[in-house]
Description:
Lipocalin, 1 helix, ten-stranded antiparallel beta barrel, alpha+beta, about 45% strand
Amino acid sequence: MAIYQFSTHVNIENCISIMNKTKLRYKRILQIVFLIIMLNSALNVSAQLSKNQETSQFNFWIGKWDLYANGSKFGESKADTLLDGFAIQEDFLEFPPEPFHSINTTTYNSEAKQWEQTMVDNMGHHSFFAGDFKDGKITLIRSFKNKNGEDRMQRVSFYNISSGSFDWAFDASNDGGKTWNTFYTVHYVRKK
């Protein structure tokens, strides 16, 4: 009887040893599978970035951003590619007490040879801007009539562009673009 118990004890230890080795193998397999999935996702994101000279001008924008004004964080933004890299969609969100949310879609119009951006927000605004990339700065402008029927212009600019940050400004003109007043500036800092 004692030999039988000893033999059972050895078999249990062997089983535990085998189970521990199997757990380690499964853990390593799961780690490898997870790594493959992450690499595949990263490669898919890279593949979506535009490789065309003009449409790649906005590649810097792809990613997740913290938004700052006057040194204080006030919101977040996420910009993703759509349609195989030929469009970029930004989800822009300001925090309360005055929550503002906009979706901005930006594309390069190869026929007009210009960037075009449509902005729609939770305040009921819908705006269309167009412009170009010149001297390291992207400038998009829209012309419209205000509620009184007067001609007005608005301009958005992307500048001080680097891999980890850039600045964005929203300006308005009442004199056909001769002078501009800056209403809003945002410093984008890439999330780590």
